[in-house]
Predict the structure of RnfABCDGE type electron transport complex subunit D.
Amino acid sequence: MKLNFHVSPSLRGPLTTQRIMKELTCGLLIIFVLAVINYTHLYGSAYGLQCVWILACSLVTMFICEYLFAKIRKRDPKKEIKHSFGWVTAIILALMMPVSVPLYAVIVSTIFAIVFAKMIFGGFGHNIFNPAAVGRAVIFASFTGATTDLVTSATPTAYINNTYGWLPANENVLDAFLQNYGGWKGLFLGTYPGALGETFTLAIVIIGIFLIVRKIIDWRVPVVYLGTIFVMTAIIAIITGIGPYHGIPGFLWYPVLHLLLGGVVFGAFFMLTDPVTSPTSAAGRTIFALGAGILTVLIRMTGNLPEGCLYSILLMNMMTPLIESALDGKQLDILKKAKHGFIYLCIVGLALTIFAACKVHPVTNPKGESEAKVVEQTEVDIL
């Protein structure tokens, strides 16, 4: 037997890190421009200017932090900033902010995102947690009582959580909820107060599909994540007996409602797809997205928070090294372990879905306005 050996060639494709971050930045800026236009149109120029100030504070703080960190490490600041892509984190963090957030809170959260969640771990490519998610968690944990005097109305996730326990029972109850936010059209277009960039569901999906076609992000992550939320909430609708909405069965409209509220769509396309804090293999990313979807629904239905996406991302970031090590080895073994892991996690998800469904009940008589009105913009959609 004759064996031939040759060194595999190193191929250089057009998809570079610089191109990925450039196109991702463009997509995020489009969403930001929509936010500025929306708030300016609905509430006036002061609101649009506040959006600009939020982004400016986040970007300036990011550049200062990265410049100082480069100086401390005795490296070229210009080169370090260029290759760390900190502005992507800053833009994402700004889009996760409510328009009512005070600017000093933006600065503090950006410092935590850049310094403690990114630079201390070694910079771009070495961080364990998604930096923008860490920054947003700081806002939620430390500045819930700090707001400007701009928007103080309750956001959809906070309102549906506190008034209906995430379970409006029938079309009359749902109509009463939807009329506060422009109906289904308002939820799709995002023309209501909330986090700056998380409300524009339709625009996010269009930009996300474009990024998938351009191979900037992996389609498996948003599809599995959003699909998991859809299936779990559909099962909850069936178990709890949620009624139809104008002829549409509860197991169809209720999952759609979950997908339109809060930051799950934004998180699916711009947070969970982060190549640094998610597994490197396609199988690993699939399991990662599945776990995040299960945690999101579980937190929403049984937790004390109106949202679940933010903490599901951070919790799954912790699991990334475990997923990577579990899927290490020969290709055939990896495929087998990935299939088994996915099936086992689906079984766990089904069990948790049944558990959540047994803990909640559809609401036919909402709480009184005095009880329900517990949220101002500080309890906004937490990604």
